[in-house]
Amino acid sequence: MVGEQSEPGHCRTDLGQDKAHSARMYNYFLGGKTNYAVDREAAETVMRHFPAVETAARVNRSFMHRSVRCLAQRGVRQFIDVGTGIPMAPNVHQVAQDVAPGSRVAYVDNDPIVLVYSDVLLDGTAEGETCYVQADATEPAALIDAVRSEAVIDFRQPVALSLHALLPFVTGDHEPYRIVRHLMRELPAGSYLSLSHDTGDFAPEAWRAVIDTYAQAGTPAQVRTRAEVLRFFDGLELIEPGLVVGHRWRPEPGSGPSLVSDAQVSLYVGVARKP
Fold it and tell me: Do the domain assignments include residue 3?
């Protein structure tokens, strides 16, 4: 476990150990160890309402791996991963640099505990480059400025923007569609948006209970319908197979739709190109 961090002459960093955090709950769902008792308690409550949540988390993680690999194979050499969460290998840069060692990745998150572990995100290839930026997705202009300041991403060349399992925690009050439009507007033609989003389409009662659990833990969240998720791709060109449930997006042999149901996954995913 990691406690509050401090250095001589610096204020201690509050890691929010007194209340559950969505990133640490996600880490628990994936079998990670970077979580506290309060996170595990909230996560277990979610699992009682939606027992397949661990499956959904693994499908989401697997989609990230496949989408990054796909985009690297398409020639994308730059990635901005917003809502990075607690590092768990393989991370975006490891997947991308396995295909193209010169790939560059900017990780973005606003969780202090991710900053504590950010050195794990900076161990890329000698040919490539990575950086970690502390920024809030609900302030897209400041986020882009912070990424630019690191000079790792060349905004004149195509970039893959990854918003994986982030937008359920951006409620309507924060205008999530405006945020995505702003971020994509900053990227040149030929860039991509890779996105995953929880949905209540298949198990509405269970997901209402899940959302209530997050709210009680102090983290507002919301699921969205397929039509609502599709809106995030307005003006972009979805690549095959379009917007689908996570395990149906270019599945690898032996890990496809026959192993889990749409209701167990309850996650829409898609990758789209900016024309």
Answer: no
Q: Quick one: how far is CA 26 from the chain centroid?
A: 10
Residue in this structure with the two tokens 């923007």, named with its chain if needed: 161
DSSP state of 256: S
Structural domain including 126 reads 22-273
CATH number of the domain to which 139 belongs: 3.40.50.150
Domain membership flag for residue 12:
no
Degrees to nearest 5, angle at CA 141 with 184 and 72 = 35
Q: For residue 7, is pLDDT > 70? A: no
Four-point Cα dihedral 59, 83, 31, 100, nearest 10: 70
Burial (Cβ within 10 Å: 0-12, 13-18, ≥19) of residue 92: buried
Number of domains in the chain: 1
pLDDT tens digits, residue range 17-32? 668 888 899 999 999 9
Query: Which region, left, alpha or beta, applies to residue 117 given φ > 0 means left and ψ of -120 to 50 means alpha?
Result: alpha
**Residues with Cβ < 8 Å from 63, sequence gap 6 or more?**
164, 196, 246, 249, 267, 269
The residue among 255 and 85 whose pLDDT is bigger is 85
Does residue 17 lie in a domain region? no
